[in-house]
Amino acid sequence: MKEKLAELIRKTSGEKVLLEHEVKGFLKEMGLSVPRGVFLKDECDISRAKILKKPLIAKTATRLFASKSDIGGIRGDIKNLSELRRAFKELMRIRGAEGVLVEELAAGRLEVIIGGITDPQFGPVVMFGLGGFFVEVMRDVVFALAPLAREDALALINRIKGINLLTGIRGKPPADLEEIARAVSIVSEIISTGLVEEIDINPLMVFSKGAIVLDSKMSLKEEKRES
C-alpha cells in the first residue's frame, strides 16, 4: 500500500491536498467501490459523460479541504448533457475549482463516515461513525489507534450507540458489516503509512451487500508529499 500511495503522490506533482477523483481512484485500487464517473476539466469534455447512466451528480473538484455542500459545490439529479453543461459552468465559477467530477447517482438507506488523522500525541488514529444527522447532531463516533485488522475494525463498529441501525431494526435488513469493517481497516492502513495527514470518507453508502464511497478527501504530510 505504501508504495502505491507514494506513486500516487508522484503522479499528483506533490500537491498537499488531492482532488476527489484522485482519492477515489486510489481507494478503488485498494479494493473499495466508487461510483462510475468522469473528471471534466473543460466544457468541451462534457460529451464524455454520455457513457454514464442518468441521473448524474456533479461536484466541484477543489483542493480546499472543505465540505462541498458548504461552498455550493454540488449539483444533483442531472438528467441530460444540457443540464450538465449548465451545472459545469456554475461549478467552475467556484473559487479554487480545477474541474468537475461527474458521477452516476447512488442512492441508499444508510450512510457512515470513516476518517483517519495523525494525532501529534497518539500517532495514527482511525474514526468511525454513523453519517448524516447522527454525526452532525448526535456525534455518534468512535476512535481507535491505527492500523486495525478486520476483526478489530468490526469491534470498533460495534461500539457506536446506533449499532442497531446497522444490524437491522424494525424489519430493515442489516448492513454489510464485513464490508464496512474492510473499509475501516483500509483507511486505518492508509493513515498508518506515515504519508497521510488526514483522510475522510464521508459518506460511505452501505447496503445489505456491499458499500460505495460517495465522497472522499485526503491531505498529505508536508514533509512526505514529494517522496
Q: Helices and strands in order, then pairings?
A:
Elements: H1 2-11, H2 20-29, E1 37-40, E2 56-62, E3 74-78, H3 81-92, E4 97-104, E5 110-119, E6 123-130, H4 133-138, E7 141-145, H5 150-157, H6 164-167, H7 177-191, E8 196-206, E9 211-213, E10 216-220
Antiparallel strand pairs: 1-4, 2-3, 2-4, 5-6, 5-8, 6-7, 8-9, 8-10
Helix pairs in contact: 5-7
Short account of what is shown:
This protein has 227 residues and is α+β, with helices and mostly antiparallel strands. It has helices spanning 2-11, 20-29, 81-92, 133-138, 150-157, 164-167, 177-191, and strands at 37-40, 56-62, 74-78, 97-104, 110-119, 123-130, 141-145, 196-206, 211-213, 216-220.
Task: Characterise the protein shown here.
The chain is an alpha+beta fold and 227 residues long. It folds into two domains: 37-104, 2-Layer Sandwich (Dna Ligase, domain 1); 108-220, D-amino Acid Aminotransferase, Chain A, domain 1. It has helices at residues 2-11, 20-29, 81-92, 133-138, 150-157, 164-167, 177-191, and strands at 37-40, 56-62, 74-78, 97-104, 110-119, 123-130, 141-145, 196-206, 211-213, 216-220. The strands form two sheets. Strands 5, 6, 7, 8, 9 and 10 form a six-stranded antiparallel β-sheet that branches. A hairpin with a 3-residue loop joins β5 (110-119) and β6 (123-130). The radius of gyration is 18 Å and the shape is globular. The model has no long low-confidence stretch (mean pLDDT 92).
CATH architecture of the largest domain: 2-Layer Sandwich
Mean pLDDT rating:
92
Q: Could you name the CATH class of the largest domain?
A: Alpha Beta
Order of helices and strands: HHEEEHEEEHEHHHEEE
Query: Distance N terminus to C terminus?
Result: 15 Å
Name the CATH homologous superfamily of the largest domain.
ATP-grasp fold, B domain
Structural class: alpha+beta
Radius of gyration: 18 Å
Shape: globular
Q: What's the structural domain tally?
A: 2
Main sheet characteristics: 6 strands, antiparallel
- Number of helical runs? 7
| Low-pLDDT segments | none
Number of strands: 10
